[in-house]
Specification:
The complex is a heterodimer. By secondary structure, chain A is mainly alpha-helical. Chain A contains ten helices and no strands. By secondary structure, chain B is α/β, with parallel strands linked by helices. In chain B, helix 5 links the parallel strand 7 and strand 8.
């Protein structure tokens, strides 16, 4: 509670500072918060903002699912089998350090300016991250519990579901958290460089028009959606998964 | 484990090595059906390795283990419960032949009546050990392996768990191999004690506590 209050106070301070600077500069290049919120409301009413936000969300969801599935499989395999780890360890370092911008441009060059390239570029940026996190998780799996599963003749599936997966949950949650934060940002760049809808595209448009109010309206809407997902989806899911603690 | 012609347990470990070091050599013993055999020896004498071989967890050895048909129950040094599953689910996940009703019965039998919905790590260590014992009994084991299951408990608690084990075995006899370094515990529970000598582990001598129907 006190943390929430402190955070609210901190945000209020930021808002006041923004308001003060906006009043002092009195320039169309720095609109005050009220103007930005009014723009958000106006663009929501026309359906424009929800449309672009929806396009971005869809891309985030698609690339996130893809990155998570592929990254988790690679990471767990690397954590469990030393031979696989040896082969791919260098790859992991290479891809972890490859700038997102390079991946995006190469994806557009090689796959064309389409949705497939966009999703693939984001996923490729995120896969090494998920893989590295889940590799750590797979390395710490408890051999004692695996022995219990074997002694009592648990099936492969049951062992995976009830013995292995719950041990990976904290690592998966960490990957989801850092993953979303990263993917949100990369999706905007992907949209800015080669898509004709989405928040990134709109920000690009407003930049070309020097429409700072519109730019900030989209940025703010974006932040609100990300926070809402954190608060109303990730938080409760996490609380449920770790209730046994 | 392969099933033998006899219904007891017949174990021969000719050679078990970790790298070049031989840890078990020329070790042979039999356990009659329904007999309780304690393996006693100093710490680090390869008792746990031997038990892992009996459990089929370690197959890299030269020798044979013939076990009666049926399921295996095992109680480890630590309770080894799934912390993220309720007590009852921990038991259900080993596929008890009697299903949920059997789980309730066995929990009552180990003094955990109505505790099935609790999380294991909300229980005391003594209670967690009871759950581990319940898990071993709920599968109606043909062979029960126990690896110092009451170690690091205070004397009174260990004694009460030994009473519990005796009571469970009286109601549902099974073939038991019980590893311990506590001779008093072995004498209290076992029909026969095998004394193990270390490096490489072998049977040094045996002591019969109670007479059991032996192999014909």
């Amino acid at each position: 509670m006190s943390v929430d209050l402190r955070r609210a106070g901190s945000l209020m301070l930021l808002l006041m500072l923004w308001q003060a600077v906006a009043v002092m500069t009195d320039s169309p290049l720095l609109p005050d918060p009220v103007a930005v919120v009014a723009r958000m409301a106006a663009d929501s009413a026309t359906g424009e903002l929800p449309y672009h936000l929806g396009a971005t969300l869809a891309r985030v969801a698609a690339s996130f699912v893809l990155a998570f599935a592929v990254g988790a499989a690679i990471g767990v395999a690397m954590g469990r089998y030393r031979a696989i780890d040896r082969v791919f360890d260098g790859w992991l370092i290479f891809f972890l350090n490859l700038p997102a911008l390079v991946t995006i441009i190469l994806a557009y060059v090689w796959l064309g300016l389409g949705e497939v390239a966009a999703i693939a570029a984001v996923a490729i940026n995120k896969i090494p991250n998920v893989a590295a996190t889940l590799r750590e998780g797979a390395r710490t799996l408890d051999g004692d519990l695996a022995a219990v599963a074997r002694v009592y003749g648990m099936s492969r599936w049951r062992t995976l579901r009830h013995v292995v997966a719950p041990q990976l949950v904290p690592f998966a949650l960490a990957a989801v958290r850092t993953g979303l934060a990263l993917i949100w940002k990369i999706v905007l760049v992907v949209e800015l460089l080669g898509r004709s809808n989405g928040v990134g595209f709109q920000i690009h448009m407003h930049f070309q028009m020097f429409d700072v109010t519109g730019l900030l309206a989209y940025a703010l809407a974006f932040i609100l959606v990300v926070q809402a997902i954190e608060l109303f989806i990730l938080g409760p899911v996490e609380a449920r998964l770790v209730q046994w603690r | 484990m392969s099933s033998g012609a006899e219904s007891g347990l017949a174990v021969t470990v000719r050679d078990k090595r970790y790298g070049a070091r031989q840890v078990i050599g020329d070790l042979t013993f039999r356990v009659a059906p329904g007999e309780f055999v304690a393996l006693v020896g100093p710490s680090g004498c390869g008792k746990s390795t031997l038990l892992n071989i009996l459990a089929g967890l370690d197959t890299a050895f030269d020798g044979t283990v013939q076990a009666p048909p049926g399921r295996l129950g095992m109680v480890f040094q630590a309770p080894r419960l799934l912390a993220w599953r309720s007590v009852a689910d921990n038991l259900l996940l080993v596929d008890p032949p009697g299903g949920a009703a059997a789980v309730e019965d066995v929990l009552a039998a180990v003094g955990l009546d109505g505790q099935g919905s609790r999380w294991p790590n909300h229980l005391s260590l003594g209670m967690q050990r009871r759950v581990a014992v319940a898990r071993a009994f709920v599968v109606n084991p043909a062979v029960l392996l126990m690896d110092e299951p009451f170690v690091s408990l205070d004397a009174a608690l260990a004694a009460s768990l030994r009473d519990l084990l005796r009571g469970l075995l009286a109601k549902r006899p099974t073939t038991v191999v019980f590893v311990t370094h506590d001779l008093a515990e072995a004498r209290e529970l076992a029909d026969r004690i095998l004394y193990l000598a270390p490096s490489p582990t072998r049977v040094e001598r045996e002591e019969v506590i109670r007479r059991q129907p032996s192999f014909a």
